[in-house]
């Protein structure tokens, strides 16, 4: 990729070879391997100069961003290790794609042995690649444990750059495929509870039926885990309740709509048919509380301060809508949840809101993505569906 980018910048393979400290035949061979791997020409000779093809221009943008991620990861790793000397030039011409693949496999599996199995290599080969990467960077990356290996703090910082570079190149391959007329691509969406009921299913269905070959993976989990996966490039975008202040300097939050919280029970609950209720009317009944780190949990514990009562009514803490639905059906339980999230259950008669007025209960719902992330055209189409059905959800 470095040879390819230098050739595009200078218009000369020989000049690119000189800048990358390679012989011209080696540089020519490197470009040929890259073009063979991608399957189309990236450069063409024009007036004695090498110029980018249309596909080459697409890939050059992604390749440069990938190398920038690696460089940023290196600098972060050196800073974490307290290394002040500049090693960027040495690193740029020494690190290999094989070392990066091995590193990511080790991170994902937690051991040299498991990484070797995933990559189809021998354990000594993976071990040598890992140790050679340490030598190139100039700081330890791995700590041996009885159960496998643990990353050093410097390695953790570098891995973020490596994974973001990998994600950038994956998008590059998808853009090339689309440019060649093949409708395909991927999107990994981190989904928080509220959006799972109708917004995500409708957006997924519209995308899958409208774009052939496009694959969507929906990942569920706790906010902190999903945010980390987003920042490391394993997830493309999050949808759900936004956090304030913004959770990290390298992510952007986009407001889609505001959702109201509501206090709920099962339709057979003694309070379900009553009107003009107060929060105090629910305190003799057992409560199912959302975790305090969630926006609904923060409202319940910090605004309504239900935990400060002389005897708290909270008996169960759970974030799963399935658990909430099941427990409410078992007895006279009360909870607080997103009004949008229970629309389907309300229409089916499994959950009903109580007539209790609330204040300060609106939550911002939206998308969270990496600030520097540039979606492919197909990914942008899917985001468009998420925006569309979020808007419809507020109108229903």
TrEMBL record:
Domain of life: Bacteria
Keyword Transcription regulation appears in the UniProt entry: yes
SUPFAM superfamilies noted in UniProt: Periplasmic binding protein-like II (SSF53850), Winged helix' DNA-binding domain (SSF46785)
Residue ranges of every copy of the HTH lysR-type domain listed in the record: 1-53, 95-152
Pfam families according to UniProt: HTH_1, LysR_substrate
Keywords: DNA-binding, Transcription, Transcription regulation
The family this protein is said to belong to: Belongs to the LysR transcriptional regulatory family.
Protein's recorded name: LysR family transcriptional regulator
Organism: Thalassococcus lentus
């Amino acid at each position: 990729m470095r040879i390819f980018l230098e050739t595009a910048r200078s218009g000369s393979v020989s000049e690119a070879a000189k800048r990358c400290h390679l012989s011209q035949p080696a540089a020519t061979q490197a470009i040929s391997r890259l073009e063979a791997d991608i399957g189309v020409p990236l450069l063409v000779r024009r007036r004695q100069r090498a110029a980018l093809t249309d596909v080459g221009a697409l890939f050059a943008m992604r390749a440069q961003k990938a190398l920038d991620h690696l460089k940023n990861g290196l600098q972060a790793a050196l800073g974490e290790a307290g290394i002040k000397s500049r090693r960027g030039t040495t690193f740029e011409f020494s690190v290999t794609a094989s070392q990066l693949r091995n590193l990511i496999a080790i991170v994902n599996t937690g051991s040299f042995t498991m990484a070797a199995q995933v990559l189809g290599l021998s354990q000594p080969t993976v071990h040598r690649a890992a140790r050679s990467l340490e030598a190139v960077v100039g700081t330890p990356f791995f700590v041996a444990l009885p159960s496998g290996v643990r990353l050093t703090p410097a390695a953790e910082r570098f891995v973020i750059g490596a994974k973001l570079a990998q994600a950038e190149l994956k998008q590059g391959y998808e853009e090339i495929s689309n440019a060649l007329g093949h409708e395909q691509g991927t999107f990994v969406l981190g989904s928080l509870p509220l959006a799972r009921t109708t917004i995500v299913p409708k957006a997924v269905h519209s995308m899958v039926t409208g774009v052939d070959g496009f694959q969507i993976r929906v990942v569920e989990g706790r906010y902190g885990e999903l945010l980390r996966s987003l920042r490391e490039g394993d997830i493309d975008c999050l949808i759900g309740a936004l956090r304030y202040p913004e959770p990290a300097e390298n992510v952007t939050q986009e407001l889609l709509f505001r959702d109201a919280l509501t206090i709920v029970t099962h339709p057979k609950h003694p309070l379900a048919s009553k009107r003009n209720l107060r929060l105090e009317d629910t305190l003799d009944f057992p409560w199912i509380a959302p975790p305090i780190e969630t926006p609904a949990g923060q409202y319940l514990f910090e605004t309504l301060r239900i935990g400060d009562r002389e005897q708290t009514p909270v008996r169960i803490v759970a974030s799963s809508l399935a658990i909430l639905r099941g427990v409410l059906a078992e007895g006279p339980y009360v909870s607080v949840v997103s009004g949008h999230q229970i629309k389907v259950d309300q229409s089916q008669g499994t959950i009903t809101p109580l007539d209790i007025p609330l204040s300060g209960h609106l939550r911002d719902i939206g998308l969270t993505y990496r600030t520097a992330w540039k979606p492919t055209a197909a990914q942008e189409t899917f985001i468009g569906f998420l925006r569309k059905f979020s808007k419809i959800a507020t109108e229903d």
